[in-house]
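Training component of the fellowship. As part of building independent skills, the fellow (R.M.) carried out the full modelling exercise for a liganded target. The chosen ligand was zinc ion. The inputs are recorded below so that the supervisory panel can assess the work.
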Amino acid sequence: MKNFTYSIPTTVHFGQGQIKKLGAEIAKRSTRILMVYGGGSIKRNGVYDGAVEQLKANGIEWVELGGVEPNPRITTVRKGVELCRENKLDGVLALGGGSTIDCSKAIAAGACYDGDAWDFPSGKATPETALPIYTVLTMAATGSEMDNIAVISDMDTNEKLAFGAPACLPTVSILDPTYTCSLPASQTAAGTADIMSHTFENYFSPIEDSFLADSLAEAILKACIKYGPRALATPDDYEARANLMWCSSWAINGFLDMGKPVAWSVHAIEHELSAFYDITHGVGLAILTPNWMRYVLNEKTEHRFAAYGVNVWGLDASLPQRELAEKAIDMTREFFNSLGLPATLTEVGIDESKLELMAQKARGAGFDRTFVPLSVEDIHNILKMSL
Ligand code: NZQ
Ligand code: ZN
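Fellow's submitted model of the complex:
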């Protein structure tokens, strides 16, 4: 294990009815906030009403910014920054999934910054401060509720870029699993694939001596395999929703990668798919992940996929390593299929025309440090395998 510093100062109130703590939490730090949400799901499932009740009861004023897009746009971030400045707001409340939370993080940082908020994703600047960020999570997927990352898109330039800074960690997150019961099946499935992908990105690290983190990763994967199908079959199954929600946070809150180098290769490739074709993040990951696994499977890596097969899928450890590895990868694909997720790029309307360009754009310096280093040609091959 390498040295590390671990600090997650986000306060999490987890469980049914925890929104009752929201108003008092906000009132400790803010008096006038920006309330940010997406296309309206929060107005149909009670989240909006619950939040408004809390704000009123605690004398907190608010301005609203609705309409945050899945794959949130920099244009919406700019609108939010403007609203914060015009109204002298002192906090940002995100009600929604990862897109709304990411947009809120960029707004909260942008409001404290003299330049344009695109400077953060483009790498020109790193947020040093941000307004306090409060979140009420409505979708188990990205882990944005407990990490410091935001992913913002500029569709004019086909760029979808991530940035992160301690200032962007939510101050308080309300995680009420009942809020996720209204999710469409397709989003429950995509969210489960995203949680699993975060776990894979951390699990398949070049380093071998991380038994504790790897065991937790395996537990998260097993929980997704157990509860993803249950949440689909019975959308209001509290135990399933609660487990998925807590997995969402722990798959990416820094615990799984402490003490080991990780490079998010499948995510880097998926972000190009979303940047060019605006597809759902978790869907892109479900298409790419088993193909990435097949591509990086070799004599040096097969024992890692074999261990994944034995520890996560319960395969018979006495089988030959390569057979175990191949079975585990097949089972990953079959599992995503069983959730109703697409298995090919063709199914989501992506053809070969931009694959090479996307491969070139995806390949940042990080690909030298990945589980198996990948060249532009390798990434292009993985994309072609995914058609
Ligand atoms: O917009 P509304 O009306 O709220 O509907 C949303 C949206 O259409 C709907 N939804 C969310 N909660 C619901 C609900 N519908 C009914 N009931 C509910 N309870 O679901 C749709 C998708 O929502 P979105 O927020 O886009 O999904 P997700 O949480 O998957 O976020 C995806 C974004 O996060 C980024 C992705 O790239 C993508 O832009 N990521 C953020 C990360 C982070 N901050 O750490 C890491 C991830 O790897 C990821 O890249
Ligand atoms: Zn993700």
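The panel noted the following from the submitted structure. The CA atoms of residues 32 and 181 lie 30 Å apart. The mean pLDDT is 96.
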